Amino acid sequence: MKIKLGGLPVSWLMGNDQPKVGDYLPQFTVKNADGKDVTTNDLKGQTTLISVVPNLKTKVCSLETARFNQEASKFEGVKFITISNNPIEF
After folding, report:
1. Which of 13, 33, 61, 83 is an S-S bond match for 53, by CB 3.0 to 4.6 Å?
2. What pLDDT is attached to residue 57?
3. What is the pLDDT of residue 10?
4. How far apart (Å, rounded) are the C-alpha atoms in residues 17 and 1?
5. Is the pTM of this model over 0.70?
6. Separation CA 46–CA 38 (nearest Å)
7. Per-residue model confidence as pLDDT tens digits over 5-60
């Protein structure tokens, strides 16, 4: 599957293959809404579902994230995270 953002090709952290259930999560560090680092190690031992969107200010990403959060409330014991390119002050 070829993925484009703004007409330009982008790459998965895991190469050309999409991740599959049971794949290991690549190492990463992102900032949470409080500006604190969250790393792959922080998620160890937790069932986690990650949604990645380019920009929360777009209608599609905003709707996707709202639905993601709505569905998240139905699952106990699962950590839900949305990652975007938006600055923390968003």
Report:
1. 61
2. 86
3. 65
4. 8
5. no
6. 14
7. 667 776 655 555 677 788 887 888 988 888 899 998 998 888 888 888 888 888 88
Per-domain residue ranges of the chain: 25-90
Catalytic residues: 61
Tokens of 66: 């709202």
What architecture does CATH give domain 25-90?
3-Layer(aba) Sandwich (3.40)
DSSP letters for 43-61: GTTSEEEEEE-S-TTSHHH
Distance CA 56, CA 64 (A): 9
Burial class (CB within 10 angstroms; exposed 0-12, middle 13-18, buried 19+) of 23: exposed
**68/81 Cα distance (integer angstroms):** 9
Q: For residue 18, what are the contacts with CB-CB under 8 A and spacing of at least 6?
A: 1, 12
Total length of the chain: 90
